[in-house]
Amino acid sequence: MSNQLVALPMTPQVFVGEIMEPALDLLPAKMGSIEARVMLLAIALQESGLTHRWQIVDPARPQIKGPARGLLQFEKGGGVKGVLTHPASQDYAADVCLARGVVAAPQQVYDVLDRNDILAVALGRLLLWTDPRRLPAAGDHLGAWNLYQRVWRPGKPHPDKWLGHYRTACGALGAT
Length: 176
Fold this sequence. Notes:
Layout: H1 12-25, H2 34-47, E1 54-56, E2 65-69, H3 76-85, H4 90-99, H5 106-112, H6 117-129, H7 141-152, H8 159-172
Antiparallel strand pairs: 1-2
Helix pairs in contact: 1-2, 1-6, 2-8, 3-4, 3-5, 3-6, 4-6, 7-8
């Protein structure tokens, strides 16, 4: 198990090959659809721009960390706790944590999200898994936006940036 971090900023192609693919390898094959891959990349672009591993609350002072962690910007009491306790994801989350050498408890997971990209992205896929609706088809940017808002519940959603990030994700994955 490697916890070596990829340098930031990273390209979508690096994210896919060095982080998302190994993360999805920790999960059942049914979770690795093109729709899931597009969502994960689009959300990573939307949340962190693939440029930081913690929430930037003041661009003038990027070293000051907000409450969200990882390339997908999970908060301890939100996404982390949700994935670890939701009936649809908790067993998978425990397996992923074990594989990544992390205790499957909210504080322990939260504490490593900005140092364990593969864990963060695997948990991101599990957060999508908890939604009872089907993943939107690749190319359905509006359905993808609705899923992102429903599951991630961003405090500042920035709808003006979503379409560009979603198109970038589709293009990087050949899902256009």
